[in-house]
Design brief:
Elements (H helix, E strand, L loop, with lengths): L3 H7 L1 H30 L1 H16 L8 H15 L3 H33 L4 H53 L1
Helix pairs in contact: 1-2, 2-5, 2-6, 3-4, 3-6, 4-6, 5-6
């Protein structure tokens, strides 16, 4: 039975790049998850902070006239929460492409073996095929959870934006 590192070693340099991307991506996923969770817990306080910031920027007493400014401030705050989300999406997009690159390289090696040595030793041919398959597998193993996490976290961000605006806009009437 092969160990995980044996599989990655079979995928060569591309396999190790994929492992590094996986570590980076999962670190960002966990970080964003906890940041979003904490933000949702403090949603009302964040809303009041946004309202105070807009009030100080505009220097008016009636913010009800400036609903668009408040909505823009909410959007900017949510945009700040998006840090790292593009990197997660890049990992999800890049991993299968790197897997495909390894596939093509492995197939190329296999066909070079056939062209140079013929089909006399199937082990030589199989080494290139093994490389091709392992890079494909690792690329997909990295990509699939990152696609899922990016979509899930994007949904949380959308929910945060709606709830943030919903918590701030009623405060305008109280101003």
């Amino acid at each position: 039975m092969m160990r995980l590192f044996d599989y990655v070693n079979d995928a060569g340099a591309i396999g190790w790049v994929l492992v590094a991307l996986n570590i980076l991506g999962f670190s960002l996923i966990l970080w964003r998850f906890f940041v979003f969770r904490d933000f949702k817990k403090n949603l009302d306080a964040e809303g009041k902070k946004i309202l105070n910031n807009v009030k100080n920027e505009v220097k008016v007493t009636n913010l009800l006239e400036h609903v668009d400014l408040v909505k823009d401030a909410c959007s900017r705050r949510v945009h700040e929460l998006e840090i790292g989300m593009n990197t997660i999406k890049i990992v999800a997009s890049l991993a299968p492409l790197l897997g495909l690159l390894g596939t093509v390289m492995g197939l190329y090696d296999s066909f070079m073996v056939i062209s140079v040595k013929g089909l006399g030793n199937p082990g030589d041919f199989a080494a290139g095929m093994s490389y091709a398959l392992m890079t494909t597998i690792i690329g997909l193993i990295v990509a699939i959870p990152h696609y899922f996490a990016h979509n899930y976290l994007s949904g949380i961000l959308d929910d945060i934006e709606v709830k943030l605006e919903s918590s701030v806009l009623p405060l305008l009437k109280g101003e």
